[in-house]
Design brief:
four-stranded antiparallel β-sheet, 12 helices, 2 domains, about 375 residues, about 40% helix, single chain, alpha/beta, Aspartate Aminotransferase, domain 1, Aspartate Aminotransferase, domain 2, seven-stranded mixed β-sheet
């Protein structure tokens, strides 16, 4: 039978990171000794007290549908977190929605805000999923290209060059996937100034907020003057609490925006997993000791990666947060796809080509140090075969 598919699928592609991680698994299953540095997933287990909270929820019978916005206990915990850590006040009743994962949250936000033809700015290099979400909504993606030689700094000139009368939205991600760049307060002030002057909304993807190194600091753009009403905060539990499989995230923003987004939740997912939500309550309100230990482990791995992937053929920007290294492969004399094939064939390392993170990503590959020190050291040793 010949199938015809919706036109909206023509402009989106499969997730490169997921596809490459699946390829790595297939190669290992076939007996090949490859090192997977692709997927953005912590190798740490979910902390035991969070697992126990999920178990208690099941035993107590919390296995049914919940309120479409999420259980009130979790929304209150999120509101308390935002107040205590970010000095932001949000109503747990009307200004927070719990979602089944961060990707779902981004999709909801873009679908709720973007009409066909509306333009969306993204600070490149950036997570590959933004462009597909924008395309699915019929929007137009515009990359604001930042450069390694400028330490991926964001300037007013760069943004204004891409702003048009059709620009409605800007998406920021700090710390950044894939570069590890942390936006400074001064850079956020530049972005907020443009948002206010050009009547734009900002989606702030804060999913790596807890994973920051050295003396860098996370600042919420929503805390800047006049930005709360035009900012939609995305955050979640997958990275900081190593809860990727629990599929749990949240959006916080003005009640008018959240009211529209809730329609999408009701019509698609209905609600997140009840068990995951009760585990999320424990994650936010219970012991936090693991956060420091995990970040210290990531920082040690960051140092290993930064030293090991800086050599005669490769160079790596020193990540300020998150758990990725963005490796410059230009001295190999090949493009990023070819570099990935070369790294796989000669060094048995599976990486992600930089071009999937926008035009600014060509000439690079992304590696994840969400894996063990042992794997990272083995991968670096294998670089001698390049």
């Amino acid at each position: 039978m010949d199938y015809t598919f919706a036109d909206r699928l023509k402009n989106i592609t499969s997730s490169a990171t997921v596809s490459l991680a699946e390829r790595a698994k297939s190669l290992r299953d076939a007996g090949q000794d490859v090192i997977d540095l692709t997927i953005g997933e912590p190798d740490f287990p979910t902390p035991p007290h969070i697992i126990r909270a999920g178990y208690r929820a099941m035993i107590k019978g919390h296995t049914k549908y919940t309120n479409s916005r999420g259980i009130i206990e979790l929304r209150k915990a999120i509101a308390q977190k935002l107040e205590n850590e970010n000095e932001l006040l949000y109503s747990a009743d009307t200004e927070i929605i719990v979602t089944p994962g961060g990707k779902q949250a981004i999709m909801y936000a873009v679908l709720a805000l973007i009409n066909p033809g509306d333009e969306v700015l993204c600070i490149e290099p950036c997570w590959l999923g933004y462009e597909s979400c924008i395309a699915l909504a019929g929007g137009v993606y515009a990359g604001v290209e930042t450069r390694e030689e400028d330490e991926y700094a964001v300037t007013e000139k760069q943004i204004l060059e891409k702003v048009t009368p059709k620009t409605k939205l800007i998406i920021i991600n700090s710390p950044s996937n894939p570069t590890g760049k942390v936006l400074t307060k001064e850079e956020l002030e530049i972005i907020s100034k443009i948002c206010i002057e050009r009547n734009m909304i900002c989606i702030s993807d804060d999913i790596y907020e807890k994973i920051i190194f050295d003396n860098h600091q996370f600042h919420s753009i929503a805390s800047l003057p006049s930005m709360r009403e035009r900012t939609l905060i995305l955050n979640g539990f997958s990275k900081a609490y190593s809860m990727t499989g629990w599929r749990l995230a949240y959006l916080a923003g003005d009640r008018k925006i959240l009211g529209q987004i809730n329609k999408l939740q009701q019509l698609s997912a209905t609600c997140p997993s009840a068990v995951s939500q009760w585990a999320g309550v424990e994650a936010l309100t219970g012991l936090q000791m693991h956060l420091k230990k995990m970040t210290q482990a990531y920082e040690l791995r960051r140092n290993i990666v930064h030293k090991g992937f800086n050599n005669k053929k490769l160079a790596c920007f020193k990540p300020q947060g998150a758990f990725y290294g963005f490796v410059n492969i230009k001295r190999l004399g090949v493009n990023s796809d070819q570099a990935c094939e070369c790294l796989l064939e000669k060094a048995k390392i599976v990486t992600v080509p930089g071009h999937v993170f926008g035009r600014a990503g060509e000439g690079y590959v992304r590696i994840s140090f969400g894996t063990s020190e042992k794997n990272l050291k083995k991968a670096i040793k294998n670089l001698e075969y390049l």
